[in-house]
Amino acid sequence: MNKFLLVEDSALVVKVINHLLKTSTDLAAEVATSKKQAIEMLRTAKRSEYVAAVVDLHLPDAPDGEVVDLTLKLGLPTIVLTGSLNEHTRDQMIDKPIVDYIVKESRFSYEYVLKLLRRLLKNKEIDVLVVDDSVTSRTYLKQLLNNQQLRVHEASDGTEAIALLQQDPNIQLLITDYHMPNMNGIELVKNIRQNTTFDDLVIIGISSHDTNGLSAQFIKNGANDFLTKPFSNEEFQCRVIHNLEALENIRKIKQAAHTDYLTNLPNRRYFQSKANEILDQHKSKPGICTLAIIDIDHFKRINDQYGHDAGDQVLIEFSDLIAQGFQRFTFARAGGEEFYLLLPGLKTAQAIKLIENFREMIEDHLILLEQDSLTITFSAGLAGFNGESLPELMRVADARLYSAKNSGRNQLCWED
Ligand SMILES: Nc1nc2c(ncn2[C@@H]2O[C@H](COP(=O)(O)OP(=O)(O)OP(=O)(O)O)[C@@H](O)[C@H]2O)c(=O)[nH]1
Question: How remote is the C-alpha of 99 from its chain's centroid?
């Protein structure tokens, strides 16, 4: 559980936040109602115990943001709560290295606070690369990104940036200036987008206000977003967060498109693209990659005897066992009670041994249903890769699966 320090004198606000946290398994608030109490809590607790501080700007014993300054000085990421927002408060806030400020209006304001806290937790695992030849600009951007708890790397030109991206596949966001020696920002974006390894990288270009059309050029060449100088801290933070959220959503969609909804195993679509990639790498090495098609025996009887839900449970448990047993390899639920398994690096004899061990394990494995228990068996058809296409390899494995079924099931077939 991640704790955050909530410094707030309004009992109502504390109540709403605690109510929103009621079902939360990742966040908990420790409340101080005054500056005095906050100091006491910070003195006794280890500072690193708190993910962040959520601080009311106006407290009876700290009427002008003194606790905000205090938590910032202690290095705690600080989210500010304020009862109202006027020009003065906004100016006062955007100059401070806070995470964000929120006007206390409704429960949505507090939901936003929790969203920000969760964002901070995620940001701690996200690497960002800032590319700018000016040390001053880099330091400034680094500070803004650090306020959001992001891990920042720096490069002073495009060549260094590309080298860093190649070294560190964890970098998810790149922020680049336009004016740089050797390779300008747009050339850098072009270079990066030519390399499919960096397809998932989010790029924000920064263009000077006096250069017409640069923002559009950044986007046309593959940047996801841009900022025109001068920009406010607030705008910068918003763009960074929005782009990271968009990246996460795209990843979730991709993940869903590649995953079988029932078993969480990779699906046929994923298998086909991954298997094609693997076969491509093994074209010049015939005989050391094997495909197996695995099919649970008499599965219809399980549905008929125990019901469809029990059938689903069997599929889920069998899938978990495949995932555990073959984690080094590529596997998928092809559909129904059929599964694909590709074993690169293994000659057919080695693949037979591995799948035969799995078959023996499965026939002894007791599946516990709500009211009952049962065991299952499977049959498998295997085909060694010798340079043919994936559909052809599948056709061979499928014909052998058919033979295994016809020869009595609960067995492997690897020859015609
Ligand atoms: N519970 C459940 N059943 C499914 C699912 N997908 C397919 N099935 C059922 O799986 C059964 C497959 O039956 P068959 O193709 O006749 O094969 P089988 O009974 O396993 O027989 P053999 O393969 O010849 O050993 C059908 O009754 C499908 O309705 C699913 O997601 N959940």
Answer: 22
pTM of the predicted protein model: 0.78
Report how far residue 46's alpha carbon sits from residue 41's, in angstroms, rounded to the nearest whole number: 9
String of DSSP letters for 53-101? EEEES-BTTBTTSHHHHHHHHTT--EEEEES---HHHHHHHHTS--SEE
What pLDDT band is residue 208 in, cutting at 50, 70 and 90? confident
Q: What is the ipTM of this complex?
A: 0.98
Q: Between the CA of residue 263 and those of 125, 140, 154, 302, 318, what are the distances in Å? A: 28, 47, 42, 17, 9
- The residue written with tokens 């109540």 in the block is 15
Per-residue confidence (pLDDT) for residue 210, from 0 to 100: 63
In the chain the domains, ranked by start, together with CATH numbers, are 2-122 (3.40.50.2300), 125-258 (3.40.50.2300), 268-413 (3.30.70.270)
Contact 383, 393 (CB under 8 A): yes
Ligand 1 pocket member 381 (CB < 6 A): no
Q: Best mutation site among 295, 298, 303 for ligand 1, i.e. most ligand atoms within 8 A of its Cβ?
A: 303
Q: Are 298 and 374 in contact (CB under 8 A)?
A: no
> Tokens standing for 176?
């680049």
